[in-house]
Task: structure prediction
Amino acid sequence: MSRNYLYSIREGFIGLRRARLATFLCISSIAVSLTLLSVFLLLTINIQKMVRIFQGRMTFEVFVDQGLDESGIQDLARILRSMEGIEKINYISRDAALETFRTEFGQDPLEIYGENPLPASFQVKLARPFMTQNRIRERIQSIQGIPGVDEVIFHDKLYHSIDRYSNLIIVIDGVLFLIVLAAAILLVSNTIRLTLFAQRKNIEIMELVGATRGFIRRPYLIQGLIQGGLGGLIACLAAWILVFILHARLPNLLEVPAHWFLAPVFLGLVLGYAGSWIGLKKFLS
Amino acid sequence: MIQLSDVWYRYGNHQILCGIQMQVRPGELVFLMGPSGAGKSTILRLVHMELLPDRGRVVVADFDSQTVTSRDIPILRRKIGVVFQDFKLLEDRDVYENVSYALFATGVPRRKIKKKVFQVLAEVGLSHKRYAMVPELSGGEKQRVALARALVNEPFVLLADEPTGNLDSENTAEIMKLLQRINRRGTAILMATHNEDLVQKVPGRILRIREGKIAT
Result:
């Protein structure tokens, strides 16, 4: 590393020490902004995750004709398995359906009707790419046309409502994320600009004695990187603590990949560097 | 070495320089005399290439205002020393750091920097104050630090813009003695001043500026 670079790094650290208050304010504003952004990010990830879990559990109920015999049911199972887009089928016999009814409702239909009135059925799960409004409708129609099928039930209204509302929440969340991001960029760049404003005379003097723009800029960019990195680390720590606390209360809801915690640090470095670069442009002739 | 040919410069609606024609030869001491607002500082800023002329040409050593690029300007400034009435020192640094900055900017090794800074501080009589912070210094001492900074890169010319304007008579005399010594060593000096007494006491060529022109 050249002498100039070593000098710039040293000057960068010295500059931070000289302007302790400005450094503290800058790191704080980056940390607060990035913590807010991290919370939004976690929120978005979890909304998407919850929707995926819920939609993934939704299945068709394919009721079988009461008169269909064992071999007819096996043929129907074979046809269903061979259909495009069907991920999984689960056969529920009439006896199994009766047992489930007894467990869930605490009543015995045999006592009321004298015989088992419940039909056998298949629970059919579509593969994820087939879970669109049109494709679901197509599947329902084609299953309904198979001989031996009495009725197909799918709570498509519920499914699409969840889809619509989750999309709406994600859009609102995304817009809020962008607003907070824009506010964070403004806040950070203004804080850095204020710090540099206090240094404008020094920058002018540095130019007068023949320092190149790069030489003048470097210590301030290093300061921006340090401030951004530290602010990002604090935000990362705050997000980790938040996830840790929420995880204890909602173990199934929050699951964040470890590398996501590095996002605020990366974003902090970018914000600090870009903020210093843009701020300096104003003061360098 | 420094040549201004038919230089015109306007700031807003105010025509500051109207066809300035002048030169400074190696080792010369030239005083730019004139009242405030006459255009003395503008000439120095043109030589320092902080400003470029609207018309005409400024040539400083190998640098020509008509062809100079923004990359050339720092290189030119390292060959020119400059001192101002308001000193223009880095207030949050000590004397040593102020003087050494100009050397760090040019990539001089630290070992050489120390030697050079100590040498130039001894020359201006400030060795004992090398680790004093700028706000702790008197006006005369600040100007001597500014001079040390201007000289540390061994410039061929020193531009001085009212260097004694903020100093009492004792410090003025000290600074002028220093400038003469520097000049005797071969460094040309172009000094803007409106102090007639000062100019009469020091031998040098006088260029009088009136209404943006050199008075004949």
Notes: The longest strand of chain A covers residues 86-92. Chain A has a mean pLDDT of 84.
